Structure formats: C-alpha cells, structure tokens
Amino acid sequence: MRIFITGASGWIGSVAVDELLADGHQVAGLARSDTSAAALAAKGVDVLRGDLDDLGIIRSGAAAADAVIHLANKHDFGPASNSAERAAVQTIGDELTGSNRPFLIASGINAVPGRVSTEADLSPLHGPDAPRGGAENLALSFQDKGVHPIAVRFAPTVHGAGDHGLIPMLVTHARTAGFVPYIGDGSNRWPAVHRTDASRLVALAITKAPAGAILHATAEEGIPTRNIAEAIARGLDLPASSVTPDEAITTLGWLGGFFAMDLPTSSTATKELLGWTPTGPTLLEDLATASYFHD
C-alpha cells in the first residue's frame, strides 16, 4: 500500500516508518523542517512539506494514499493544538469518505475510576473544545461515511533511548527541586510501552485492524508511580519523597496533576486481535540505564 503518515519524523512515527518500509509499503510523510524532510528522504519516503495547519497539503497526501496514519500533534495541550488536531482529522476524514480506506489516528488513554480501562471503554471526549479536539470520536464517526477508522491509544509514557516526553520532564523537574516527588503513597499507576513496540503496533494495525477498532498501545498495564520516582531517584542520586497533590503542582507544574492520576490500562484485547507481542525493555529497565540522565 501507499501510506501517508503525519508525524513521520516524530518519536513514534520515525520508527513506524521503518516498520512500514520493512513490510513493503510505499510511504509518504509530512515534514515540517528541512532536517526532517532530509531524514525521511534518505529512507526512501516521499516527502510532503508542511505541518498540521497546512490542510491543503494534508488533504493531498490523503487523496494519493491507500491508507492514512495520523500521528502528528502540536503537544502544547492548549486550544490551538486542539483546534489543529480536529481540523486535520476532519480534513482527512472528508477526503477518505466513501473510499473504505484505513485511517489510523493516535489518541490517548482514558482513566476509568476504580478499575483497569479496556479497549471497550469509549472516549468521553467529544467536540472541538475537548482535549485533542475530541479527535478520536470524530475519526470513529467517519465509519458511517465509508471510512475504515482505527484509534490507537498510546500510553502516557512511550519510552526508550532519546525519549523527550513525560519521563524526561520528571527528570528535569527533579534536578531543579533536588528530590523526586511522588503523590501520596505512590500507588497510582502509569501504563507504559517501549517505542519499538508502539511503532510495531501501528504497522500491524493499519493492515489488520477492523473498521472502528480501538487499540491500546500499553505493554505494561500500570507501574506504581512510587517505583518510577525511585528509579529516577537512583539515576540522579537524589531522594524520592512523598508530596501532597498541591505540593506536586508546585514542584512539577501541570505535570504534577497528571502524575497523580491512576491510569491502569489493559491491552489484552489488542494483543489477541493483532497478535501483538511487546518485546522491548520495560520502563524500569530503561530507567536503570544512563540514557535518561545525561545533562
């Protein structure tokens, strides 16, 4: 297939591109910068220059593709990011309407109070003012319009050497504070997945997942945040200390509220459906290496 992918040079997308090429697909990728464009071109990817605001470029990429993978996001968690995400999904969905072509969208996991969340739990996020612009539900709604949508919910921590996501943010805040905080007794849980496993799931899903599928890219259902904090503390040679939710916000900013959430998430149905078997290192194994602690 010819597959158009946004976020093709990103943390997950760059490895997903490698997986897709290894599987024999032709890949076209959206690239914002000269550096990203050159890296994609060196792999044999057809480059489309633009970003999430270039809806004409996104539409043309989708029009020329047999399938679309949408991984790009502005990652500022604000109204502009939500608006851009929704507009891109709307544009791709409109272009694919009536074609039955696969359209995979990256999404986030949802907390379900009191239990482990599963793929059967529907996203509560609807409408343009919701986080990520309610893009998961918008994408899935295109199934009624002759599109083959697939939602992949990624763990908040997609880890590996070179990670620049939430765990490195925790490391940076800890260096400033002089200790590594966890909230309360630290029993609240974060799911995680290695970058290579997440990327392989994307490549499997675009060819194997049925229309309307909701998939969970979580290799580990939930790691107690105290264990995460203590692993970071060992890497930085700092203490790990319990804080209150208010103190977490003071120390970690907005990340403090997120680190306080309990997010256990199952991927059992995803593994059974796609034959996906994560093989990468665990988060704590990665945190036992030096890669997260370089200045």
TrEMBL record:
<dbReference type="GO" id="GO:0004029">
    <property type="term" value="F:aldehyde dehydrogenase (NAD+) activity"/>
</dbReference>
<feature type="domain" description="NAD-dependent epimerase/dehydratase">
    <location>
        <begin position="3"/>
        <end position="84"/>
    </location>
</feature>
<dbReference type="GO" id="GO:0005737">
    <property type="term" value="C:cytoplasm"/>
</dbReference>
<dbReference type="InterPro" id="IPR001509">
    <property type="entry name" value="Epimerase_deHydtase"/>
</dbReference>
<dbReference type="Pfam" id="PF01370">
    <property type="entry name" value="Epimerase"/>
</dbReference>
<dbReference type="InterPro" id="IPR051783">
    <property type="entry name" value="NAD(P)-dependent_oxidoreduct"/>
</dbReference>
<protein>
    <submittedName>
        <fullName>SDR family oxidoreductase</fullName>
    </submittedName>
</protein>
<dbReference type="InterPro" id="IPR036291">
    <property type="entry name" value="NAD(P)-bd_dom_sf"/>
</dbReference>
